[in-house]
Amino acid sequence: MTLAYRTKEPAMTPSRLSLAAASIAVLALGASTALAQPTFGNPSPTAGSRTSQQANQSADQALYQSIEYPNRNKKGPALVVIPGEIKSSNVAFTQKITPNNIADFAEVELTNANFQVLERSNLGAALREFELAYNLGDPDQARKFLRMGKLKTTKYVVKFDILKTEQIAQAQQGFDGRAIGNIASTLGAFSGSWGGARAGAVGGQAVGSVQTSEATSVWIVGMRYKIINAETTEQVATGYTEEKMEIGAQASSVLGVSQGQKGGVGLDTMMQRLVQKSVWEIDTRYK
């Protein structure tokens, strides 16, 4: 009979247990560090100050917020986004936002909604020729390009247009203490006593130094989307959505101490939110 022997393993002494626990902790820490998102410092000289906190609170409201699209678990058809039109005469808007900018946002959101998005940059000259033919109203020529290369698998062509950029409301209010300060100084001068005159002068200067102002403007921006059948170039669906964009500022000054704050949703953020609303509707109705 042949006997098989197993080598006796060394006992786990307290020191060995401590070493093993430390090794596990180091490995766990390394894994969590590797999986964590990168963080960055803030080199601003005002970091952590009151003004920094106020500005960051406003900025937090404008951060990108991902949308849980209702049908994101359902794979959508292959589509391509072409730059739309911006039908606005507002110079500030047209200088900041371009059709390609909006199309980039749309590609990101449609991908998040689990549509098969063919990136414009990968389609080359065929897409540019299709855009030209479609915008010139030549569906036959547009169809020829949709039968070429990667565009063969495309079911829909989607475009997003800006139809409205309108400032619809503006309000402002403020307080200027100089008039009341002058009245206080005058009343003190006629008080009949040196102390009263002196108090009136000091009080008048204090009240006169108070300056406050507040202003708010509200814009309405409207976006239309179109879904086009890539085979027939006929319009399958269209939709329209609007969002309000508010910009505000306030400032105050008392005895030479001043403070102010200005903020609101920027144009890029507004475009992104309009695209998200449009993609939500496309995902819900037309997937």
List keywords for this structure.
disordered N terminus, alpha/beta, 287 residues, six-stranded mixed β-sheet, elongated, Rossmann fold
Descriptive notes:
- The chain is 41% helix and 28% strand.
- By secondary structure, the protein is α/β, with parallel strands linked by helices.
- A hairpin with a 5-residue loop joins strand 4 and strand 5.
- The N and C termini lie far apart (73 Å).
- Mean pLDDT is 74; it is low at 1-10.
Which residues sit in consecutive blocks of at least 5 with pLDDT less than 50? 1-10
Order of helices and strands: HHEHHEHHEHHEEEH
Radius of gyration: 32 Å
Structural class estimated from helices and strands: alpha/beta
Helix content: 40-55%
- Percentage of β-strand residues: 25-35%
Could you say which overall geometry the principal axes of the C-alpha atoms support?
Answer: elongated
Task: Tell me which CATH architecture of the domain at 67-177 and 205-285 applies here.
Answer: 3-Layer(aba) Sandwich
Number of strands: 6
Provide a compact summary of the structure.
This protein is α/β, with parallel strands linked by helices and 287 residues long. The chain is 41% helix and 28% strand. The chain has a domain of 192 residues: Rossmann fold (3-Layer(aba) Sandwich), CATH 3.40.50.10610.
Secondary structure layout plus pairing:
Layout: H1 14-35, H2 50-61, E1 78-86, H3 91-96, H4 99-112, E2 116-117, H5 125-135, H6 139-146, E3 156-176, H7 178-189, H8 194-208, E4 211-229, E5 235-254, E6 257-264, H9 267-285
Parallel strand pairs: 1-2, 1-3
Antiparallel strand pairs: 3-4, 4-5, 5-6
Helix pairs in contact: 4-9, 5-6, 7-8
